[in-house]
Amino acid sequence: MLLAKSAFISVNQRPMNDILQPRNGRLSLTNSSHSTHTDGMDDETTFMKTQWAEVDENGRLTLPPEVAQQFGLTPGARLRIETERNNFRLHRPVTHLAKLYIEATNHCNIDCATCMRNNWDVEIGFMSEETFGHILSNLEEVGRPLDITMMGIGEPLAHPRTIEMIAQLKALGHRVEMVTNGTLLNEKRARGLIEAGLDVLWVSIDGATPENFADIRLGAYLPKILENIRRFRRLRRPAHHPVPEIGIAFVAMKRNINDLPELLALGKSLGATRFSVSNLLPHSAEMKDEILYKRSLNSITYLPSPWLRHLDLPKMDFNELTAEPIIKALSSGYNVTLAGNNLGGANNVCTFIESGAMAIGWNGNMAPCPPLVHTHVGYLQGYERTSIKHILGNVRERSLLDVWHDPEYVAYRERVQQFAFAPCTSCGGCEIAWDNQTDCYSRPAPACGGCLWAQAVIQCP
Ligand code: SF4
Ligand code: SF4
Ligand code: SF4
């Protein structure tokens, strides 16, 4: 199951009108004297401290060292800037490796109607100890903690060594999350994951009733999964913020969207503190009419542009009185901001590239993102589109850092960050877009213009 988070440095105040250049961990700001601060919650009474950036006497914007470190702001780094009305966002420099997805196996013990495994021809396998050993030594070479998610197209707990892998990653200081279907989460594995120090356990639940769940997740039984999560919760050491955190991942489609409110309540009762909702990427003709984003890809609502009509909505109660008028306002043909945030903030933004991620398949193949680890078929605007895998190298033959710094791969990440691709997700479609090998701008493979992850339509935890 593929289900990512973006990483921006958001800076409030007035838009900057000049180029920022990091020098010795500083951002140089010329021709501006505005005082600038990073946004956060207020003081010690809340959970996030306000952080400040300052402009020094030479016009250079200085950020707190921990922020510079977190986002890889080393000398020479270039940061893409996006300006909005009252703030601007600095994107993570593409040179900063911060996250890794590891696919322990692409085997799965169940058979979801939504799974890309239904429509592919890919060798099924389990990551060998030797391949994982290469990943560990590569991580030692990186020399700093990364965010690592055990996730791919398969069930991680179907691999007999996944818990041991997590323990080894945690021993090196990495932050580790895992996405599971929850079926194999017995007491022994639950204890193992907790002792290994897993940070977040994500469980995919696509229905709030046994019938609706079984309709999608063939071979799995909801009451059993709920029992597994409840036991996992009981086994955690009691704390104000117990670890591992529990997250629920939900793939929304026509047949289950009505379950969402009940699932949120159910998740809360299970101790879940995070919820990640994604749309469906149909992998078969039967599923293509299940999508809930037929108009969203072209909707002005999500399209920030100074040339479009604009509607600025405030915070408001969502209840029986306001639901219908708000829905009508959202779909009335205006670009919408809600409480100052544009609803279309994630157009043409690849959350994997933005978060400094790379993905490694079970066989050691490295790719820019989990979707490019395996060739797979999806449906876009009703037509079939093949996403051909894009393998950058194999950890058994090339080091992670060697691949990461490869000029061709750095240029690709810059291309993705600028999103210099033809707009296939919103265009009606043509034969060129039947796969990701090029587009009508003649971009080289992989051409990401047809990727729904980059439009925040498909999301991963
Ligand atoms: S849990 Fe379902 S979606 Fe995930 S890999 Fe298994 S069959 Fe596919
Ligand atoms: S390649 Fe060009 S014409 Fe074809 S679907 Fe993409 S944007 Fe449209
Ligand atoms: S935009 Fe490109 S790199 Fe990003 S998820 Fe899509 S295919 Fe992968």
Tell me the distance between the termini.
10 Å
Beta-strand content: 15-25%
Overall spatial form? globular
Number of strands: 24
Q: How many helices does DSSP assign?
A: 11
Distinct bound molecules: iron/sulfur cluster
SSE arrangement:
Layout: E1 8-12, E2 20-23, E3 26-29, E4 37-38, E5 54-55, E6 60-62, H1 65-70, E7 81-83, E8 87-91, E9 99-102, E10 111-112, H2 129-142, E11 147-150, H3 162-171, E12 175-180, H4 187-196, E13 200-204, H5 210-216, E14 217-218, H6 222-235, E15 245-252, H7 260-269, E16 272-279, E17 310-313, H8 320-330, E18 335-338, E19 341-342, H9 351-354, E20 357-360, E21 365-367, E22 376-380, E23 383-387, E24 393-394, H10 400-404, H11 407-418
Parallel strand pairs: 9-11, 9-20, 11-12, 12-13, 13-15, 15-16, 17-18
Antiparallel strand pairs: 1-4, 1-8, 2-3, 3-6, 5-6, 7-8, 10-14, 18-19, 20-21, 21-24, 22-23
Helix pairs in contact: 3-4, 4-6
The structure holds iron/sulfur cluster (3 copies).
Residues 350, 352-353, 368-369, 371-372, 416, 446, 448, 451, 453-454 line the site of one iron/sulfur cluster.
